[in-house]
Amino acid sequence: MKNIKSYPDAKERTFTVRDLPKSERPRERLIEYGPERLTSAELLSIILNSGIKGESVIMISQKLIMQFGSLKGIMDASLEDLKQIKGLGEAKASKLKASFAIAKKVMEEIKSYENEKQSDRKKYNAVTSPEVIYEIIKTRIINFSKEHFFVISLDTRNNFIGIDEISVGTLTASLVHPRETFESAIKRHAAHIIIAHNHPSGETEPSEDDLKITKRLTEAGKIMGIEVLDHLIITDKSYLSFKEKFLM
């Protein structure tokens, strides 16, 4: 009689996400439905990847949530606290700490960005002159050897809403398209915009392309109901306003 190879007892097996039906595997569900549709336990199981003998990765993830109460509780737990959970060795606990550290850094970056936007709004409330725009723009340009094209969005009272960098590189009429120029203004619900770009040469005299771009965008603004109030050419030391020079 042939020896019949028996399957190991469930308590002796090491469970992985592959033991689940394909439609129930967290990674496949994330790909198909997006991370928003996954439970906290499913998201954790993707990071942990595998279980241990007798316990699936989903079970370990659920134990984590039960032990620490929430994802924030897991995030605040120390490496030693995490390692107390059966199935979490140093490697998996380290993965969790790294994942939550990344999430924390992202939130800090978002908060910093929001604070910067609020600071801009308070600092540059009503835009009353080209000097105000010049001060806003020149602090945003790190590399003056390249041309940076900006759109400054304003409300109906010319209060500063926000600033968006549209392109970096050589500025030509063919490269600066009304679609990209007005996209940010529409998203910000702007009533007016001011466009601006720098000249790496250090000269503020507008080129033929600068004049064409200004005319094209001004006409597009009239059609879209978003007035282009001015176009500034700036350098690290000075600026030129098309409005002040009667070029628009």
Rg, Cα atoms, Å: 28 Å
Number of helices: 9
The level of helicity is: 40-55%
Shape: elongated
What number of domains?
2
Largest sheet: 5 strands, mixed
Strand content: 15-25%
- Helical/strand content category: alpha+beta
End-to-end gap: 98 Å
CATH architecture of the largest domain: 3-Layer(aba) Sandwich
Count of individual beta strands: 7
Average pLDDT works out at 83
Can you walk through the features of this model?
- The chain is of the alpha+beta class.
- The protein has two domains: 10-106, DNA polymerase, domain 1 (Orthogonal Bundle); 130-241, Cytidine Deaminase, domain 2 (3-Layer(aba) Sandwich).
- Helices cover 44% and strands 17% of the residues.
- Helix 2 packs across helix 3 (57-68).
- The longest helix is centred in the middle third of the chain and has 34 residues, at 90-123.
- The chain is elongated.
- The model is unreliable at 1-8 (pLDDT under 50).
Provide keyphrases for this structure.
2 domains; 248 residues; disordered N terminus; alpha+beta; Cytidine Deaminase, domain 2; 5-stranded mixed beta sheet; 44% helix; two-stranded antiparallel sheet; DNA polymerase, domain 1
In short:
With 248 residues, the chain is an alpha+beta fold. Helix content is 44%, strand content 17%.
Write the layout of secondary structure elements.
Elements (H helix, E strand, L loop, with lengths): L13 E3 L9 H8 L6 H9 L1 E4 L3 H12 L2 H6 L2 H5 L6 H34 L6 H9 L9 E7 L5 E9 L9 H10 L4 E7 L9 H17 L2 E8 L4 E3 L7
